[in-house]
Design brief:
single chain; eight-stranded parallel β-barrel; about 500 residues; elongated; alpha/beta
């Protein structure tokens, strides 16, 4: 029985005569994608994101950064995008399950230009779950995933594969993929066992391109074929493909997308850093991408500064971008403050029964092992009141927290927002204690029973540690004596 080809919906995104930034783990985050677009890339792929993780995310409009964030339950931003790339970004997922794939595609489809399934990654983190290159040996599963996606979402669906050991098997696979209705197929011209040092098989990509009618995107030429922009067209011609996808060549210097030739690496790095700061990229992701660009210059004084950097400010210091860092962080903080004021006004209208005060918890103001929450709990017990109850909410715009504590049926909270749930709870406890005129344990306050109790406990612990150390010393001496005793004298 002849299989029916599913028709792909018309879309603004076209895959013919295009140059794309390939999906790369830890590289294809928002700063790199935007930079590639600036330099001339037509299409940009995000890094592979696993369906199970993405399925747990919620969509958050970040008004401060002007982005759309997909945030995991532990508050990690899994995928961040913005209006600038909306018509160019392809969301690539790792999946082995049609229903999970569809759930994730529906979650992101209104914020991306297309959906791609990774069927070529040979790394264990992808293949062990039946994803990536593991799918190549299960064409039935490939077909179920792609048909489910094509039928279920309004955006184009594509996939990225590696070639199989047999040309005939490769051709059969891509023709079967074509019949699912996908908009394009990206082909990495190496087998899953091959690595970058192995030559790319342009002839196989060409045979694939001749065997199907949909666009084929050639990938894998960075090491052998593509050194400058003019090589991109030569690689496309050699493979007979409709488009070319660049990975490592773009990772090393994304200005390879420029028709007018590459820019000095120092300029490229500066422009990348500006996007990383502007869009609050994770510090260590920024650091990783910059290390890939510096390559052999990592041992230079600048490279060593980058290697030791632990924050965006330190990265900016290494690359003479401190002024931009100060200006941009000040701008983002001002936006955040304006949003906070707006939310505070809304909260005042909503909650008239909450006692508020503008305070923050600073750990340096309190002795070790002493916190306002402990003081409030101790006081509540002494007054035979129920234990304080904390209700904490998170603000979507910057993922900051604010807590309200209920004590004796009255509510207390700070008007300030904190970076963590723990800090927010301590701040709420401070508001309650200060409103009630109670000590909170700050350094310089008259010592309370709680502080004295903690000091006694510490003293006891120190005495116990000293005794344990003394006993350990005696035991060690005995062991050393045994070890140094001649074998004939050791008891048997």
């Amino acid at each position: 029985m002849k299989e029916e080809m599913i028709k792909q919906p018309v879309s603004r995104l076209c895959f013919r005569s295009k140059v794309a930034l390939a999906p790369m783990v830890r590289v294809g985050t928002l700063p790199m994608r935007l930079l590639a677009l600036d330099y001339g890339a037509d299409i940009v792929y995000c890094e592979e994101l696993i369906d199970i993780k993405m399925q747990q995310c919620r969509r958050v409009v970040n008004e401060v950064l002007e982005t759309v964030d997909f945030v995991a339950p532990e508050e990690r931003v899994m995928f961040r995008t913005c209006e600038r790339e909306k018509d160019h970004v392809v969301f690539q997922m790792g999946t082995a399950d049609p229903e999970r794939a569809l759930a994730v595609a529906k979650l992101v489809e209104n914020d991306v230009a297309a959906i791609d399934v990774n069927m070529g990654c040979p790394k264990e983190y992808s293949t062990k779950g039946g994803m990536g290159a593991a799918l190549l040996s299960d064409p039935d599963r490939i077909e179920r995933i792609l048909r489910t996606l094509v039928k279920g979402v309004s955006k184009p669906v594509t996939c990225k594969i590696r070639i199989l050991p047999s040309l005939e098997d490769t051709i059969r696979l891509v023709q079967r993929i074509e019949r699912t209705g996908v908009a394009a197929i990206a082909v990495h011209g190496r087998q899953k066992e091959e690595r970058p040092q192995h030559p790319v098989h342009c002839d196989v990509i060409k045979a694939v391109a001749e065997a199907v009618s949909i666009p084929v995107i050639a990938n894998g030429g960075s090491q052998d074929c593509i050194k400058v922009h003019s090589d991109i067209e030569a690689f496309r011609a050699a493979t007979g493909a409709s488009a070319v996808m660049l990975a490592r060549a773009a990772m090393w210097n994304p200005s390879i997308f420029r028709r007018d030739g590459p820019l000095p690496l120092e300029q490229v790095i500066g422009e990348y850093i500006r996007y990383a700061i502007r869009y609050d990229n994770h510090t260590f992701n920024t650091k990783y991408c910059l290390c890939q660009m510096l390559r052999e210059k990592l041992e230079s004084p600048q490279g060593k500064k980058l290697h030791s950097a632990q924050s965006h400010r330190e990265i900016c210091e290494a690359f003479d971008s401190v002024e931009y860092y100060k200006e941009t962080t000040a701008m983002l903080e001002a936006r955040s403050a304006a949003e906070a004021r707006r939310h505070h006004t809304d909260d005042q209208l909503e909650d008239t029964d909450v006692t508020t005060m503008t305070v923050r918890f600073d750990r340096r103001d309190y002795p070790p092992q002493i916190t306002p929450k402990m003081f409030l709990l101790e006081w509540s017990r002494s007054e035979q009141l129920p234990q304080p109850v904390y209700e904490t909410v998170q603000r979507p715009l910057d993922r900051f927290f604010r807590s309200t504590v209920t004590v004796a049926n009255k509510k207390y909270r700070s008007t300030a927002w904190d970076k963590s749930k723990k800090l927010a709870e301590q701040t709420a406890a401070i508001v309650c204690l200060r409103t009630l005129g109670l000590p909170e344990g700050r350094i310089g306050e008259e010592e309370s029973n709680l502080v004295k109790k903690r000091k006694r406990e510490e003293k006891t612990e120190c005495s116990g540690s000293a005794e344990s150390a003394e006993e350990s010393g005696h035991a060690a001496n005995k062991r050393n004596h045994v070890l140094s005793t001649p074998e004939s004298e050791v008891p048997r």
